[in-house]
Amino acid sequence: MNVDIHPSWKSYLEEEFNKPYFKNLVDFVKSEYQNHTCFPPGKKIFNAFNHCYFNDVKVVIIGQDPYHGPGQANGLCFSVNDDIVHPPSLINIFKEIETDLGIPYPKSGNLIRWSEQGIMLLNATLTVRAHNAGSHQKKGWEIFTDTVIKIISEHKTDVVFLLWGGYAKQKTKLIDKKKHHILTSGHPSPLSANRGYWFGNKHFSKTNNILRDLKISQIKW
User: How many helices and strands in the chain, by DSSP H and E?
Assistant: First the structure.
């Protein structure tokens, strides 16, 4: 696995790439991709970094694990490739945007369009074995992505962090609350959304209101 990551991130993460845990992680991921079907495709593992450059980050959304079905994962949390059926969590995200902002439900579930506007769509674990959710957890990815969150918190100001569900909310401790904006809610998965913990959070209008007040260009959700 080559760490094919945009130069804007390299100076901040170079030290991390040289740590023993990361070298062990690379060996593990290489072996998994050689011996099993894994997602996302190797070239898309660092897509979140390659479509949202460090200087452009203004919103961070944290997911847990890539989708593990064929053709779904494209390296951005909650996002799927064009022409792929939208998974339930993504459906609920788009429904909330529709209610919150009056934006029609989109045909494509590919969130690269968000990424390129400065939204860091970061999964805590960047790879997964096919049909085996969580199979690459606790191998080192979480150490790496926690460091990414800390680096964003430390080196930037006024970033909007959207933490959906219990797992993402645990990342609050990595973020300087005095410098940044944290919005939390239940997870968009049907289990949480149908219990009333997701719909009506208005995170999309709230994010744009924060960006507007900061005189930063708003997101076209």
Answer: 9, 6
